[in-house]
Amino acid sequence: MRLTTKSQGGWPSVRGNGRYVLSTRARGPCLRFHGISQPLRPRPVAATRYLSTSPAQYRNTSNLHNMQDKLQSLAFRERLAAAYPWTKAPLIVGAPMRVMSGPELAVAVSRAGGFGFIGPGETPEATAADLETAKGLVEASGIPQSGSGSTLPIGVGFQLWNGNLDIAASAVRRYRPAAVWLFAPQNGQPDVDRWTTRLREAAPQTKIWLQIGTLQEALDAVRSASRPNVLVVQGAEAGGHGRASDGIGFITLLPEIADATQGSGVPLIAAGGVADGRGVAAALGVGAAGVAMGTRFLASQEARIKKGYQDEVVRATDGGVNTVRTQLYNHLRGTFGWPDQFSPRTIINRSWVEHQAGTPMEDLKKRHDEAVGKGDAAWGPEGRTATYAGAGVGLIRSVAPAGEIVEGVRKEASEIIQRLSGLSH
Ligand SMILES: Cc1cc2nc3c(=O)[nH]c(=O)nc-3n(C[C@H](O)[C@H](O)[C@H](O)COP(=O)(O)O)c2cc1C
Questions:
Q1: What pLDDT is stored for residue 344 in this prediction?
Q2: Do you know which InterPro entries this protein is assigned to (predicted)?
Q3: 209 CB under 6 A from ligand 1?
Q4: Mean pLDDT estimate for the chain
């Protein structure tokens, strides 16, 4: 076998028999493959040469993957547990949901051994106020602090396309959340690089999590000089904003990304459609180091959500039929400017039905605004306003305290994994 190296985008790649990731500084237990030893743990990028860097090239390398490669996520799980010592396995993350994931929800998730994120606020300034509240709740809760004790055991999400980096950096410098979660850049990786660099300068202890929804976005991120600490792989079922037209479920997307980013040392978290322990077990099975849930926590006692909205999340079933990705509700609410590559998943109601039937936008807008004036009646099948939620709504049947949700989902996932492991004997 002949191997040649060629540097691409700052990352060396290896060309040869079309199927290998070669470590030049392997330590610890190694796997022999075609006469080359491969360490069984993820390695620092500097110590790793990459076979190829485009999705097409990666397709040619798919027969590389033996069981040890596929189980790299086990080592990642250990690494995440060490970085976030208050968390328990399997890792359940409370996703940052704009306005709806407030400090009460984030801290309740972390207190139960999950990892709670505060969502972006109504205004950029709202994040600092939420972090101040979270700090007080953390101090009262007795959650063990991160590693050195120097970060808050929660995270915070930022929406890049309309976020304010100066205000975000100032909040992160002051409160040092354990992680920030970046999403929705207007211009792809260059925007992510700018945010990552600045936030790392502001709080070096704070880890960078990046939510992506395609293989290309994942490759751009791991090749970047400002590589994230964690990639959240968002599948098409996810509630809220996600890929507008090129999303797929994480059951296929995540393992493809795991193969393609193998050796980068970046753990993957699965998101989209998980609402119970069955989804968690499935995500771990395809290589996730943990799972992020959003919609499930809309039906938590701590969510900052109106009752009419929450009732609808509990009522709705059959997410493929009764949820849709559309910009319609953004526009009815007066929100414009989202980059074309993203659109939100919402539960459908009268506005959608009438839009499909051809009702002009100005009539829909008038009826929408009247409905909003009626409070909780604005939601429900006869309602008219945005009910952003994921395709997993049919799995959500009650409102519960966030801590109970985390513990229940974790327990169910652990039981499923234990029972499934019995199948191999
Ligand atoms: C109501 C709602 C609001 C959301 N807002 C954000 C957000 O502001 N930033 C973000 O990165 N993700 C946001 N998300 C997406 C989540 O990060 C996550 O990908 C998603 O909730 C996972 O899928 P699930 O809803 O099926 O659990 C939101 C999701 C929902 C349901």
A1: 98
A2: Aldolase_TIM, NMO
A3: no
A4: 86
